[in-house]
Amino acid sequence: MKTGDLMARRQRALAPFHYHMFERPLHIVRGEGVWLWDADGRKYLDCYNNVPSVGHAHPRIVAAMSTQAAQLNTHTRYLHEGIVTLAERLLARLPDGIDTSAFVCTGSEANDLALQMARLFTGAEGVVVYDGAYHGNTALTLAASPSEYPPAERPEWLAVLEAPNLYRGAVLRDDPAPGQALLARAVAALDALEARGQRIGCLLLDCAWDSNGPLLAPVDYVQGLCAEIRARGGLIVCDEVQAGYCRMGAQWWGFQRYGITPDIVTCGKPMGAGHPVAAVFMRRDIAERMAAHQVYFNTFGGNPVSAAVANAVIDVIEDEGLMDNSARTGAYFLAALQELQARHPVIGDIQGVGLFHGLDMVRDAGTKAPFGRADMARLGNLIAQEGVITGTSGRHGQTLKLRPPLVFAPHDADLAVQAIDRALASFSPQEGRRA
Amino acid sequence: MKTGDLMARRQRALAPFHYHMFERPLHIVRGEGVWLWDADGRKYLDCYNNVPSVGHAHPRIVAAMSTQAAQLNTHTRYLHEGIVTLAERLLARLPDGIDTSAFVCTGSEANDLALQMARLFTGAEGVVVYDGAYHGNTALTLAASPSEYPPAERPEWLAVLEAPNLYRGAVLRDDPAPGQALLARAVAALDALEARGQRIGCLLLDCAWDSNGPLLAPVDYVQGLCAEIRARGGLIVCDEVQAGYCRMGAQWWGFQRYGITPDIVTCGKPMGAGHPVAAVFMRRDIAERMAAHQVYFNTFGGNPVSAAVANAVIDVIEDEGLMDNSARTGAYFLAALQELQARHPVIGDIQGVGLFHGLDMVRDAGTKAPFGRADMARLGNLIAQEGVITGTSGRHGQTLKLRPPLVFAPHDADLAVQAIDRALASFSPQEGRRA
């Protein structure tokens, strides 16, 4: 199958909102570990995909999936040990008090269920999110994702906070007390929501601020915000789809970095290394309120194959020491990126931790004028031509996002930095220039 | 692992809304074709599960899944042939005009996306559903599922039609023109919605009326209703999660039975024989409206493994002649159930077609007083003790639902009928008796 023909067939058969990445779409046919191969046999280092968390086509994941599928794949209306073991293993990694789990298929379903539960439990409809947030594709989670639709359509129950970007936000790293300054701005947004007659049901918090960054926020800000939300009757829902599963280095969950204790935790993408499995963890009283009100059933959620795969992912993370790798290789990667930044002033800022870093690309280091989207696309294509797959993020799409599978090794970090170095050497931004 | 211990662990770790079926929950550990085995080695004929559409643990499905998982599992932002081939094969089975597809993970996500698209395209929020309908577990699809929550909480944009049950509805089979009488009642409900200031975005229609039955409606009613919806500016969304994939005999989709042409078609459960894969098919102009308005991405939707599994399901249906089997074995099953009804007056009515039948259980054939829920539970347990797994449905929970995998053979139908016969021989309803 030629790539051009396949592209034409795809454009005919699939919805136009099924978009693809890169100018010349990648036609990937095989994966292994941190490597992907296209139809022409070209090899790419994967610096973008967090979903194949333990590496592409990991043999233990494939074996777990195949073995269970050959045996049984039903649903949670019968007893099965797989889902119970999975629930116990993940609950053991969560703070005391979060003792109850529900399994679904996607992060969108997880966040949708979390918002439903938070609203039922508090009796309050208000949801607090960040300006660049993406929390899912269902009608409700999409409404809670201000990055995805025109600001004029924001529902009145939504409070939108400015993401805590200390490099280019309203509060900067060298402010005397950035955490408190950020908190004052957040409090004003909460006040505005309440002034509209809305009560706060929950804060929906991605501790990596993935689609804004990643960002690293002041700890006192995050703790202060959670206290404010609680004082106003709201729950803390941590969306760990991005930040969880050792993505941010030496802890299983992103919220642990900030020393906060959520009421509800959702996770998705990395849980099944590509298999559609996701979950919601919560206090039992929150789950009981839901059970008293309505039926909830998820046909595929936590089925025996999904549970086998998700258990195998935890096995691999444990046996291959991937939490430690995320911290160590992540620190090595960051140091190498900082060295790169010293040679390339277009890298305005680097934020991130563990195996999740963002390079904020600027046309001018003084004004911090961001790269435009066309330049970022061109840069991404150049880096891909150098054999490395990256992504973009950030309010202006100006952040080069580096978020490889957790099996990424220091040698892979070297390769990635060298490729970005070569791409930047031949690159100059075109947008924003005087004609 | 003892079943009792496992149950206790499950109750501790899982949310109480993850309910199980049967008084003594079944602890199923293995499946093959139409058979399930519990932890004690007891064997059950599966007369309930439509999700393992081509039979439990079908070796071709397992092989397709394993082979693809060992090769690659990414997402739709890169080109991959599997999803394109899958889209083409399913679009070829749909009416002209429905030429565009989107892949998601669950029927809930499919219906949620369909409702979002219908609302965007028509600019109208109103949704028309049936009283017993279940269309999903997201906030939006749950609101469109009146079976799942208290009637007082129905949103004002929802019009709820009475399901066309010609045995126990307001319009009966022996009315002079049941289709027209049903239509008049539906029109009144649409008028009431519009009188509330709501415009109709779509009808969300399950052509099996699964959670009300299954039911068989008059063709002129369904056609007339669709014409009414269109005349008022609404789209026809067929939810084929239950009725599609040859469930209703000699056609791929349930709506074909009624000679209607939908604008959007959703499917889920049977598509992946247990693997979480689902889809939305639509007219291109509807997809284009969505693409112009917003981003839509579904991380796991249509990934290479999901596509491989869904393609294998179509292969098996074709190669094993399962559409024909659904029609033939379904007719054989129905005849045997009708013979059973002649001997058991508690079977008030039988509705269904293909491999989807419902027995409406009555305490009194004259008054049609339905079995209560406790009696239905007791009956289901008795039939399970006889080695056959069934389900319940219906407005009062009074319908014994028979909806086996599509590989169900005439011999299996005999076994099922014999088991129900034995259970009924020792059964008398307790509820509704004078004390």
UniProtKB/TrEMBL annotation, chains A, B:
Query: Which GO-annotated molecular functions does the record name?
Result: pyridoxal phosphate binding; transaminase activity
What this protein needs as a cofactor is: pyridoxal 5'-phosphate
Pfam families on file: Aminotran_3 (PF00202)
Question: Per its UniProt entry, which superkingdom is the organism in?
Answer: Bacteria
Give the record's keywords alphabetically: Aminotransferase, Pyridoxal phosphate, Transferase
Q: Which residues form a coiled coil?
A: none
The record's section on SUPFAM superfamilies has: PLP-dependent transferases
The UniProt record lists the keyword Signal: no
Record's family?
Answer: Belongs to the class-III pyridoxal-phosphate-dependent aminotransferase family.
Q: What is this protein called?
A: Aspartate aminotransferase family protein
Instruction: State the taxonomy lineage.
Output: Bacteria, Pseudomonadati, Pseudomonadota, Alphaproteobacteria, Rhodobacterales
